[in-house]
Amino acid sequence: MMDMTVAPAEQEAGSGGWPWELPAGWCWTYLGELGAWTGGGTPSKANKSFWSNGTVPWVSPKDMKADIIGDTEDKITIDAVENSSAKYVRIASVLMVLRSGILRHSFPVAVTDRIVTLNQDLRALTPFEGIDPTFVARYLKFATKRVLEDCSKDGTTVNSIEVSALERLPFPLAPLPEQHRVVNRLDALFTEISEGEAALAEARKGLETFHRALLKAAVTGELTRDWREKNKPVKTGHDLLARIKAERAAQTSKGRRKRMQDTEPLNTTDLPELPEGWAWALVADVGSVQLGRQRAPQHHQGENMHPYLRVANVFENRIDLNDVKEMNFSPAELETFELTPGDILLNEGQTPDLLGRSAMWRSAERGFCFQNTLLRFRAIEPLEPEFCLLVFRHYLHAKRFKRESQITTNIAHLSSGRFSTIEFPVPPIEEQKEIVRLTQHGLASAADTRILLDSQLSDAARLHQAILKSAFEGTLVPQDPADEPASVVLAHLKAAPSRATIPRRGRKRAVRE
């Protein structure tokens, strides 16, 4: 154990290199001086007697999701503890993850409420008598940023904390009674904050439900039920389909569009009934479908390099151009794959629940193309592209695309052929415009509310940290001059440190203690 170096508040003020000035009765020390440290170990997985019907909690990083560690996903046997590197760790010890990818952004800390063992990626600090383990754990939560910046190992494949650096972490120690007052006050305040955060999270879930419900109402006609009663269409969805068919035939005869392959007529037997004036069609009946250009080494350079979009660029109703790659497109290929305003891009290859995620290309910038991880849908006039996007967004949330998927190695694919034969609701053109107007207004209001909720959640996180800062600067609760100073407590403890681990064959006795 390092030399017991403490800085009583009255000696420390304005000097000594400690992080901040402390109130009377407090003192600076180091984390390594607060108790005894214990490492962990993993009993051999090959020995079934170490793991079968185990009763001893064995803590690993995956268990470190709560402030209190009791039960664990894995348990080992007493035989495993007695015949491996695993050690018993006492109740009221502070556990820390010292090796895990999670250390890129978090420093998991928890307190034990029973005797446990650890795997080798954790370390336990069993505080001396006179030091509240929850007080220690709360400070480590507050000091997460400093721990990750100052104590992380360099050059390791897995993020790791240097134990010796962690033991040198400055620690503001309060008198024991004040430690208890701080912990109790933090518990009360954090309970209030948690209740507020839960309410905000529930409200955000409600927005997601509203989002899905609004899209469904939009494409089933429920959203415009009242509008239809006051606005009888001059031309129906069937009339619109006939016009689209004529437009397609005219473009084909002029050579402006390839002749579409005939598709099977749509069977509407199992489809929901549409409002009066609406019609069912196939996706292929109302627009052209094109799979993007495949990447290949010969396209990585050339005279006609153009930016192209891929799955990583297309989110729901949003295209991200921060990471756009280029490949060579001949003039003929550019004519086929170039995007124009109103084109809708859908994820062709994705995880099953995100298959068909879609967004509209709205930019007038020329020369952008798309890769074969995306499908392009181009609506035939006079169909409203914005309405088409609403249909596809609803199908995403309703898992309609998922039902048409073909899954390979955990990636689902939506082929152009399967996509083309999906049913598509066609309202009269004026109703399409009203649906788009109402839906965009509703979604914009929901987006504004979501921003407000996210801001409030961020405020709650900042409040959490501000409260911890106040606690460990000694301003959260009042000081009591009658409390024994922390420096005196540490001096007494140096002579009689407590034990961190329990003898391997003394567990029953330890439990009785």
What does this structure look like?
The protein is of the alpha+beta class and 513 residues long. The chain folds into two domains: 7-175 and 479-512, Adenine-n6-DNA-methyltransferase TaqI, Chain A, domain 2; 235-427, DNA methylase specificity domains (Adenine-n6-DNA-methyltransferase TaqI, Chain A, domain 2, Alpha-Beta Complex), CATH 3.90.220.20. It contains 16 helices and 27 strands. The strands form nine sheets. Strands 3-11-8-9-5 form a five-stranded mixed beta sheet, covered by helices on one side. α3 crosses α14, α6 (176-220) crosses α11 and α6 packs antiparallel against α14. The chain starts with 6 loop residues before the first strand and ends with a helix. The model is unreliable at 9-15 and 507-513 (pLDDT under 50).
Nutshell version of this structure?
It contains 16 helices and 27 strands. By secondary structure, it is α+β, with helices and mostly antiparallel strands.
Q: In CATH, what is the class of the largest domain?
A: Alpha Beta
Basic shape = elongated
Strand residue percentage: 15-25%
Provide the domain count.
2
Mean pLDDT: 90
Measure the end-to-end span: 26 Å
Number of strands: 27
Count every helix, treating DSSP H or I runs of 4 or more residues as helices.
16
**Poorly predicted runs:** 9-15, 507-513
Features:
513 residues; alpha+beta; single chain; four-stranded antiparallel sheet; Adenine-n6-DNA-methyltransferase TaqI, Chain A, domain 2; 16 helices; five-stranded mixed sheet; disordered C terminus; 2 domains
